[in-house]
Amino acid sequence: MQDIHKHRLLILDFGSQYTQLIARRVREIGVYCEIYPYDVDVSFIKDFAASGIILSGGPESVNESVHVRAPECVFELNVPVLGICYGMQTMAHQFGGEVASSDKREFGYAKIEISKVTPLYESVPQTQDVWMSHGDKVVDLGYEFEVIASSENAPIAAMAHKTKPYYGVQYHPEVTHSAYGKELLENFAFKICGCEALWNPASIIEDAVQKIKAQVGSDEVVLGLSGGVDSSVVAALLHKAIGEQLTCVFVDTGLLRLHEGDQVMQTFAENMHVNVVRVNAEERFLAKLEGVNDPEKKRKIIGNLFVDIFDEESAKLKNAKWLAQGTIYPDVIESAGSSSGKAHVIKSHHNVGGLPEDMKLGLVEPLRELFKDEVRKVGVELGLPYRMVYRHPFPGPGLGVRILGEVKKDYADILRQADSIYMQELEKSGYYDKVSQAFAVFLPVKSVGVMGDQRKYDYVVALRAVETIDFMTARWAHLPYELVGLISNRIVNEVKGISRVVYDVTGKPPGTIEWE
Ligand code: XMP
């Protein structure tokens, strides 16, 4: 089997909001890469044995932050280097050039004119639209670099070293608005660094299967299956690798969406023949949540009880030696960048935390190298249902945080029905995939309505739909009025207990995506 990590790029991160995007784009063209802070240990950079290094953008100014530089070893390793935005500025500066500071940012489209065809610009148009987002710019290249592209506002929009494979671009090729950004990254990775495209869903699966087999041997493995994307893909991957040696524990909290528990069982136990222990724990969750109104208390109760039940069940599996987790690459990057160093991340809710000491399980984390979009592609390649893999995010505490205040069974039942109608209509109209996340929220207030000749006095449901890239900020989705009207009509007519439907028009900030 080919080593899919053989050709690899190292991305040194100067703090740009686009750094993960650079890595995702590089992976998309089939090349493995990893992100590390720009000041990572020099010995680490050497040991990484990169085929090439990319210096990311960042918020600093080379004239003010003299220590925020590419480590000198980057230019001693004899590998190609591509500097993007700040990465280009610091490279120019470190090679004797000059960067002019500016308070005014250039943000948005610009047209560049390529003045010299180097391998970086092979087979692309001479004039192209690119995406700029910078304040400072390189104004003097010193002796070693030459200009290879210009824009009106940035006469040095791209540069190349005269004798070495070092390049810099002031714009952002990783952003899709840059028309030939993908080609630029391909030219860098394939033509300049000599990488091969070895990274794709099928080869990732083959690699993971081999590694899992080597790691666990004939031992048994336990996995907390939630029905979410990450744990579902881990289940499918482990099943492919070790079949019967895997047991999944699926805790049905009673706070899942309509028929979700049955769907999880159907997909994994019935269709794929994965060992799944289903624990119907609705009554235990509802009993613990009785009389509790505070959102944070609710979250803690749900999280703790979930862990307790998972522990009880997995302790019954006497032969289990390993615990599988759906940790993905962004979690790993976060922990690597944290002041506590490369701590092992255990996601707080569905990926189980507090296992009993005496269980002494080792961790299996087959998604540690993957971005979410790669996890999804791997899931589809493994044969998981498209809709399961491309489902909107669902919070760990489930409907527990979508029923405001105290959680009751009849509230959950009403909400499940309303939410299901909402999702059906979003699917039918094609809006499910156009928004990032959508769901209904149960408001425990009563409102007057009329139905036929009868007066109704029933509960209110709010519809939420947002568009976002990172879920840190979001705008409310501008769903067509006709669609919102149709959903509202169906909910009020079909769901007993609802007299009114409202649409949430709050962005994040100031709102959060969830209501609790
Ligand atoms: P907020 O409401 O903070 O949500 O704007 C941002 C994203 O996180 C999800 N979310 C959670 N996920 N446990 C989770 O696993 C939680 O307690 C939780 N709270 C919010 C939310 O659905 C959205 O995608």
Report on this model:
- Catalyzes the synthesis of GMP from XMP.
- Pathway: Purine metabolism; GMP biosynthesis; GMP from XMP (L-Gln route): step 1/1.
- Pfam families: GATase, GMP_synt_C, NAD_synthase.
- Its EC number is 6.3.5.2.
- By secondary structure, the chain is an alpha/beta fold.
- It has 14 helices and 20 strands.
- The strands form 4 sheets. It has a 9-stranded mixed beta sheet with strand order 2-1-3-4-11-10-9-6-7, sandwiched between helices.
- A hairpin with a 4-residue loop joins β10 and β11.
- The protein is globular.
- It binds xanthosine-5'-monophosphate.
- Xanthosine-5'-monophosphate binds at residues 299, 349, 393, 395-397, 437, 471, 508, 512-514.
Could you give a short description of this structure?
The protein is of the alpha/beta class.
Mean pLDDT: 93
In which order are the strands of the major sheet placed? 2-1-3-4-11-10-9-6-7
**Small molecules bound in the structure, each named once:** xanthosine-5'-monophosphate
Number of helices: 14
Give the % helix.
25-40%
Strand content: 15-25%
Shape: globular
Domain GMPS ATP-PPase: 199-391
Pathway: Purine metabolism; GMP biosynthesis; GMP from XMP (L-Gln route): step 1/1
Catalytic activity: XMP + L-glutamine + ATP + H2O = GMP + L-glutamate + AMP + diphosphate + 2 H(+)
EC number: 6.3.5.2
Task: List the main descriptive attributes of the protein structure presented here.
20 strands; five-stranded parallel beta sheet; binds xanthosine-5'-monophosphate; 516 residues; 23% strand; 14 helices; alpha/beta; nine-stranded mixed beta sheet
